Amino acid sequence: MTGRRRTRSTFLPGLLTRHARNGVLSAGTAVACASLLAGCGVVPGTTGDAGDDTITVMTWAPQDTKATNKPGMPAFAQAYARWINAAGGINGRKLNVLTCNDHNDSVDAAKCARRAAKENAVAVVGSYSQYADSFFPSLEGAGIPYIGGYGITNAEFTSPLSYPVNGGQPALLAGLGSALAGCGPVTLIRPDTIAGDQLPPLLDSGLQAGGHRASTDQRAAEDATEYDGQAERALRTTTRGAADDGCVVPALGDRNGTFMDSFRRAREDYPEVRTATVLGSVDQTVIDATGGASGPYEGSYITGWYPVASDPRWDGMKRVIREQAFGDNRIDPADAGVQTTWIAYTVFRQIVESLGDGEVSADTVAEALDDGLQVSTGGLTPTLRWRFQDKLAAVGFPRLVNANVTLQVVRDGRLVSARKGFVDTTKTLQDADVNY
Fold first, then answer.
1. The model's pTM
2. Distance between CA 17 and CA 5 in Å, rounded?
3. What is the mean pLDDT of residues 109-124?
4. Measuring CA to CA, how many Å separate 290 from each of 170, 223, 242, 277, 294?
């Protein structure tokens, strides 16, 4: 099962084009190919020789680092493969899931992408990495689609080989800003990283849509062991001369809990403030660990991409965990990374099913998506369909096809829905100043 790889174009901001199938490599593709151990003569696709019915994909995420870790994503991907193979595979084809640890490091992220190309992966599915500038050149050079990334980088919403299933940080922060428009002063505490630099304009787009002034941008080290000084500064900023309660928005990933420990100690000396954040920085286990109903998150608004974990629409994912990963503490069904991986593999399964008995390769997977395949996720997202230019192309997000978020609130120590259904942040993002 081999075939000639299409040559895919590089892209300009706000404009995506597709080259004719003339066999000419773009300069970016040539550079990326030079770095691939497998070389440009290898067509990413099914593993093994022609006739081998195993489909190889890869899932990567950081593990065992001092910053954000997502071990549940590759662990769930392998559980999914066991589950799907126990039922006979996809259209009779076995699924082989490779996993890779990017260590929150640009060099390792690039190594993961090169390995995907070397081992002929047909797609990278349900993954997390902050280093899109490191891994996308290799994926694009090899023609490997990136399906269901976590949405942590802007490149996931611009690369012609990216097929996101959620609205990433843009939608979460725009939705959160809209919900906080009734607050007094708002301070955002975010990582002092390239990915962190993208967050303030997105939160501000929602705040300003509700008539609120921009937030105070407060940078912090993403691997700090305490945030006492940061907590004091945020409290001073949000309580100074304000008629309405201020709002503190930590967006530090796995370090949110560390910040909240410092914040809880410091807030006793200041007037009342509210906290709010995005799912992925906080989940039910974090809320429990910080005191539940008596903790700092009580009453907090939290935006997420999907329905709350207790929603019956997650029953299929929970069945996979129960049958193939019972007792695996890395896999939390309430974790947004695990949820994204489930949705990404749901998408991938429908792609392969749409190909029938035909070739399953990186090229045919991307072609199915580019040709307008519509994918249902059982109500966890809107029906997904990717086009080269979508509604948000004008503001630099041409691949963002799902701008829906859910608004949740911590009530009596439990994370529950604050509003029925989804909130569409498309209009807010269209009006945002996010071209940076």
1. 0.81
2. 17
3. 98
4. 27, 19, 27, 14, 8
